[in-house]
Every structure is written in C-alpha cells, then in structure tokens.
Amino acid sequence: MFKFIVTGGAGFIGSNFTKRALDEGHEVLILDNLSTGARENIDPRASFYEVDLCDYEIMKHYFKGADYVFHFAALARVPLSIEKPRETNRNNVESTINVLMAAKENGLRRVVYSASSSAYGAQIQMPLKEDMPAAPLSPYGIQKYVGELYVKNFYNLFGLEGVSLRYFNVYGPQMAFEGAYTTAVASFIKLKKEGKPLTIFGDGAITRDFTHVDDVVEANLKAAFSDKAGKGDVINIGAGHNHSINHIADLIGGERVYLEPRKGDPQDTLADTKKAKELLDWEPKINLDEGIKNLKEIYPS
Q: Which of 68, 113, 120, 140 is catalytic?
C-alpha cells in the first residue's frame, strides 16, 4: 500500500476519493484550507491539515514520505472565475505549481491532476478529443488548462510523472448543494426538495456529459498506477454520452423557470473516452438514469 497526498480532500470529489483509498488500505494525508470544502466530509481515518496550498514554504513539508499526490483542490466554478479572475487564478494556478514543486522536491512517484473539460470551450465537432486545440471560454477554463501545461512541463524538464484528467460535469454523493459550487444536478435536487421550481439558464437544450463521481475516483486510481500513462498525458474522463439540462429536469421532476443563459458556458460537451480506455484501461460504469435514481434515494424530496 502507498501514502497518498489528497489536496481538496474535504471537497466533493476529494472526499469520495479519500474514502475509496482508505477502504483499499492506503494511507491518506489531506491538505485543505476549507474555503469550499466541509469539515464533515473529512474521513476520520485520514490525517488532515488545514493548509493553504499557495503558501509553499508550509505546504511542501507535508509531502515528505508520500508516494503519490492527487490534486483535487480548486475554486471550481466558471461564474466565480468570471467575477473574480485574479483570486481564482491564484488559487487554481499558483497552488498547482506549488503541488508540482513539492512533489518534485520530495521525490513523489506521480502527480494526478484534476483538469477540466472547460479547456475545450465551444467546439463544433463532437465528441471532444484530447488532441483538439484548447479554446477555453472562461478564466476557469484557462486556469485549468494552464495546470495541464505545467504538469506536462514538469515531466519534460524534471522527469516528474504526471497525468491530467479532464473531468466532464461530475455529480454524485457529497456534491455541494449551496453557493457558487453547486451544479445543475445538485441545484435541481435541492430546489425539488424545497418545493421550488427548477432554475434553468437558457432554454435547457444545451447538453452535458454527466459523469458519476465513483467513475472519476476509479479513473484517478488507474491514472496513478498505469504503466501506459505518466508523461504529462491529458485524458478525458466522461460518460461518453450527453444529455440536455431539460432531460436532467425530467429525471428529477418538478416545475421549471427559465432564465437568461450564463456567460462562459459552451453549448454542448461530450467526451471521447478512447484514450482513457487505451492508457488507463478505464471505462465509465454508472449511467445517468441510475446515478440520478441513487441520488434521489440518498436525498429524498
């Protein structure tokens, strides 16, 4: 078994990953400043340190003796990045550089970086493939794409192994239901529970590739240990099927209200997952209907 550093381990994806890693017998050390994560998400079996990843002189010491780092921490919303581009750039770019430097300095085996499909921007051709030119529409998309470039650069310059996983609209247990970090799925479930109409930006016809968090967790583990990856590879992690926002509303049920479209949102997303299968031997297992059904049981209205 190995020692894992998990940044953002109090957040949605990081906390799900931590539980799985601990269940498999790995040692986990969580670094999180709790700016968006929740203390109640922290698994008591893990070591936890409330640390700002932008403070390199402090955070680097926690990497001693670790084998792998899984970098989930981010201010991960498009609207927030448009409102506060400087703050989100510091958190999303500077923290990633610090994670890479600390991993290099302490001799970690590999960095698994949580990238984003927002790097693609508004592409006409679907599905989205990793060799398409990046064209992000928001500061958040730019920031996450820059992180990928650094992961690749640290491999080229220093031989630090790394993999960047481009997530597509992750949903599942422990997702945020409040504030700037909520998603369409979480927002709809919350509104339904409160007896309020589901708020849809635009006409609801835009499509997204919704990916269950359990599949994302599996992809991270495979990315750490795959012999075929590690050279700064960028790999899509999506369901390989897309659905309209109106379809999500159909699955959850309830009345709807339509508002003006949001800036920085692409019309459609759909992952090509062939590279994930080839390099990671990974395929998504949970379809959207099953995932939403399970969530409605966990969070009944």
A: 140
